[in-house]
Amino acid sequence: MGRVNAFILSRTGSEVAMIPEVANHLINSGGKRLRPMLTLATAALSDYRGDGDVKLASAVEFMHTATLLHDDVVDGSEMRRGKLAARMLWGNEASVLVGDFLLGQAFKMMVEVGSLEALRILSEAASVIAEGEVMQLAAAKNTATTEDEYLAVVRGKTAELFAAACEVGPVIAGRPREEQAAARSYGMNLGIAFQLVDDALDYGGREAKLGKKVGDDFREGKITLPVVLAYRRGTAEERAFWKRTLENGEAEDSDLSEAMRLLTKHGAIDDTIARARHYGAIARDALGIFRGRAEAEALVDVVEFVTSRAH
Amino acid sequence: MGRVNAFILSRTGSEVAMIPEVANHLINSGGKRLRPMLTLATAALSDYRGDGDVKLASAVEFMHTATLLHDDVVDGSEMRRGKLAARMLWGNEASVLVGDFLLGQAFKMMVEVGSLEALRILSEAASVIAEGEVMQLAAAKNTATTEDEYLAVVRGKTAELFAAACEVGPVIAGRPREEQAAARSYGMNLGIAFQLVDDALDYGGREAKLGKKVGDDFREGKITLPVVLAYRRGTAEERAFWKRTLENGEAEDSDLSEAMRLLTKHGAIDDTIARARHYGAIARDALGIFRGRAEAEALVDVVEFVTSRAH
């Protein structure tokens, strides 16, 4: 990971001073570097020898960073990882364009590795991520979103990059199709678990741990799994509450405590965690064919780490 | 070009209905398809056989379309090619995300062609384009921008994609380095000429031909070559006018006629066209090594077409 960090920093440089300023603000803001770590781990699990894993891991982190910059513009977010979002400091314009720059840099790194298959996987991921975000934009204000529809959004906007980050490890090592599919499945399900825990934390986490305020999703009118569950389990009157606050965008700060009460009443947060554990279990089982390998054990620990963030 | 159009339309599809809506609004809005045409022409000039040129040409047009979607958000533009900009119909959010989707699709197309060298050229272009836009953002309100600084912006935000579109033709045909460099040089200088003519037209073109209003650059406070020239040739009082209207953003509709008067007084529009012709001449000469080829003659005609738009 030290080499990934060094490589990342070497590629945010530009004669245009604003680019490294904006990029490094976010890159050095204490992200967990979970996605690049997955690429290194699956490459190690595949006995990969070379430096392609470091470059692909860095490309994955750049893609993730570009997405965050654009997301914050799309959502109008003010905070990111406990700091002001880049758009609050340099404006929406710079956030859009520096995101585009990082995406271009990500593809340059992938080209350097020279694996067309890895390029195919990651460019497909770039399209699917954007597709998931547009889907969320279209569904954002619809409290009648079904759990299946919401999961389709999560697969696109979050899990696809986890899946791609894991799949490229065995791919550059030239491992058999079966192992590539196993790594992809692990990543996809870990990514879903990760997002669902995030959704739950938004209503229950402590601010310092979260890096943003409790209830941000509520204030932004985002329909996430806790709300989908509470809406479906609620009375007509409760549904009217969710419609007023989220669909009509009339949420006031004082509404958050009522939202929390309804979520608790219906066990929506606990059940969101339970759903996350289910996907975590699938991720673990996907690694079954690597049983006994130390790297596989470490990847299983990641599942535990991700799902236990909820406590 | 028929095959390019068909391929483009086949790749804007998505289950997420908003994506083809937004993408096709812009793609079908009567753009000149100049950039993909350059890829087809330089591939033909290189005796390329295969369908990679159609895919790369489509990828180039997708990169261009993604840039336009993001530009209109960054500039807050209301019109594009005589129609409402996508952001006015679907919002800034959708424009950012659909741009990201198209960029992902562009890279998928390039991967299908399988040329790592073409991928390297076009991913480098994606970074440089974004860099040029950020540079423009930083320089946008500075009336003291020098002609050289402005040309650096133009190379990045416009000419780089022309250069890359031309370079990939001989690259996928496996032609010698000398021919690749000639095609790149042609594209780069044609791109600069194109942008300078555009800058001149913004102050002098007829609205129907322009697809946007005369004086849009002025109203948006953009420093383009006509202004750079008029500022440097102007009196202290005139510089104060440019500072007030562009740098301080206090331009009123009534100021446009004064701006036009100053531009005319200093011959700034005519000289912008003269500068464009200079780059057009470099583009023509770059093709010298292909003398006698019908495709080279056609590419020379493109230079004439681009620079004579000014009349």
TrEMBL record, chains A, B:
<protein>
    <submittedName>
        <fullName>Polyprenyl synthetase family protein</fullName>
    </submittedName>
</protein>
<keyword id="KW-0460">Magnesium</keyword>
<keyword id="KW-0479">Metal-binding</keyword>
<keyword id="KW-0808">Transferase</keyword>
<dbReference type="GO" id="GO:0046872">
    <property type="term" value="F:metal ion binding"/>
</dbReference>
<dbReference type="GO" id="GO:0008299">
    <property type="term" value="P:isoprenoid biosynthetic process"/>
</dbReference>
<dbReference type="InterPro" id="IPR008949">
    <property type="entry name" value="Isoprenoid_synthase_dom_sf"/>
</dbReference>
<dbReference type="InterPro" id="IPR000092">
    <property type="entry name" value="Polyprenyl_synt"/>
</dbReference>
<dbReference type="InterPro" id="IPR033749">
    <property type="entry name" value="Polyprenyl_synt_CS"/>
</dbReference>
<comment type="similarity">
    <text>Belongs to the FPP/GGPP synthase family.</text>
</comment>
<dbReference type="GO" id="GO:0004659">
    <property type="term" value="F:prenyltransferase activity"/>
</dbReference>
<dbReference type="Pfam" id="PF00348">
    <property type="entry name" value="polyprenyl_synt"/>
</dbReference>
